[in-house]
Amino acid sequence: MSGTPNDDRRTRRRQATLTEIVDAAWEIVREHGLAGLSMRDLGERVGMRGQSIYSYFASKNEIYDAMFCQGYEAFIEWVDDRSSAEGSSEDPTMAAKLMAHTFIDFCTSDPVRYQLLFQRTIPGFEPSPESYAVAVQGYEQARQQLIRFGVNDQATFDLWTAMLTGLSDQQISNDPGGDRWERLVDRAVEMLLADAATHLHQESEQA
Amino acid sequence: MSGTPNDDRRTRRRQATLTEIVDAAWEIVREHGLAGLSMRDLGERVGMRGQSIYSYFASKNEIYDAMFCQGYEAFIEWVDDRSSAEGSSEDPTMAAKLMAHTFIDFCTSDPVRYQLLFQRTIPGFEPSPESYAVAVQGYEQARQQLIRFGVNDQATFDLWTAMLTGLSDQQISNDPGGDRWERLVDRAVEMLLADAATHLHQESEQA
DNA sequence: GTCTATAATCTGATAGAC
DNA sequence: GTCTATCAGATTATAGAC
Fold first, then answer.
1. Is A85 helix (H, G, I), strand (E, B) or coil?
2. Quick check: B52 and B94 in contact, CB under 8 A?
3. Measured between alpha carbons, how far is B132 from B130 in angstroms, rounded to an integer?
4. Is strand C in 7 Å reach of the CB of A38?
5. A181 contacts in B (CB within 8 Å)?
6. What residue ranges do the domains of chain B occupy?
7. 3-state class (DSSP) for residue A1
8. A201: pLDDT confidence band, cut at 50, 70 and 90?
9. pLDDT by residue (tens digit) across B54-86?
10. Which of A28, A88, A207, B125 has the highest Cβ tally under 10 A?
């Protein structure tokens, strides 16, 4: 009863509408903030009534969840694309700086996405297990990258995430569109690398 | 026509109600998030109808503004109380660590306040000039403190704020109630001090 | 799958009696 | 200064026709 050409067409069409809705949700949220997403606006933007969205998503939180998932997929792709270029670099310091810029560019290029992925700001929202798994995958990818630069224990990694999210956060909050904190990234990486060298754990946690 | 004992009593009573309302607003916001503040809830908590609040505040944003102002006053007092104790310390490294803990304790002890003071998360809200002046005063106080530790140029100060807000933010977002990032503070300060020493600007910006 | 209709509730804010 | 009454909407979500 399944697998007919007609079913194929139908699911493809449905999938297209799903991504169309999520894309429209990102647009709204970039204009009116994370909390400013409403089903009516969303329906209007995608060419249907707000109530019809419920044929695709059971609730508003399910839309946030799809955005959360898509955001982390974008993160993984963003880092993948740029780390292959870094891999060809000989200088590990240079590679670490590139990685840091890659992360901060991702954050500052879309502040609302940063807010959804890396901060807890929507009161009722908890990511589904499936979306959370994607988030963990992104986190692990970043951790594996840093291990290459000698960041092989949890404490040092936590210090790096604090520094990099701190730079992103200040850049977004206090100098949107500028580079007041972004231009401190190279200096921050040099500082972190020097620190990591003095706190080296000999037992690497690599596989 | 003014200055009679009756006027005195009246303004004192009014002032008491004003702070009572702001205190109740903090309670609500700690329970339901920054965006979860409503005039009806606020009125109920303070013992009047929601509409009566408008006798004290012209709009909801004026309440956010009062909270913003009060939050920065609390920050100034918090730092003042603890920096006098630090002043008696001989070791500048120790003093810097105490200052960093003071800042991060302030942030993590009240996440919603941190959100209101240091992040831009309420869509329509802009602090009034009066409240903004208090914020600038708090910022300047922190800057003057760091100058004592050799952080005498803007770039180095920006790096410190990024590190300290980054640690606060990670602590709040990813380990609420714990100390996973808080326990990295001493190490972070040592790292920042070593960095500041190598980037010393001879022309101090002190008065 | 999309519609209309609507439930049920919340929102900030104003007018005017007392 | 607090109340009642009310405006003028907004919100998420469901039921049922087509």
1. helix
2. no
3. 5
4. no
5. 158, 162
6. 1-57, 61-206
7. coil
8. confident
9. 999 999 999 999 999 999 999 999 999 998 876
10. A28
Q: Residue B35 and residue B122: Cα distance in Å, rounded?
A: 7
Would you list the DSSP string of B73-142? HHHHHHHHHHHHHHHT-S-HHHHHHHHHHHHHHHHHT-HHHHHHHHS---TT----HHHHHHHHHHHHHH
Which listed CATH number (1.10.10, 1.10.3470, 3.40.50, 1.20.120) goes with B1-57? 1.10.10
Chain A 138-177 contacts with nucleic strand C (CB below 7 A): none
User: CA B204, CA A35: separation in Å to the nearest integer?
Assistant: 44
CA–CA gap between residue B78 and residue B71 (Å, rounded): 10
Cβ atoms of residues B165 and B142 within 8 Å: no
Distance of alpha carbon B22 from its chain centroid, rounded?
A: 15
CB atoms within 10 A of CB A150: 17
**Residue A99 φ/ψ, nearest 5 degrees:** -60, -45
Residue B181: C-alpha distances to residues A45, B26, B125, B177 (Å): 42, 26, 30, 11
Contact B97, B103 (CB under 8 A): no
The predicted-structure confidence for A24-39, as pLDDT tens digits, reads as follows: 999 999 999 999 999 9
Query: B61-206 is classed in which CATH architecture?
Result: Orthogonal Bundle (1.10)
Give the nearest partner residue to A119 out of B158, B159, B173, using CB atoms: B173
- CB-based contact A162 B166, cutoff 8 Å: yes
| Per-residue pLDDT at A11 | 92
Nucleotides of strand C within 7 Å of the protein's CB atoms: 1-6, 10-15
How far is the C-alpha of A23 from the C-alpha of A32, rounded, in Å?
15
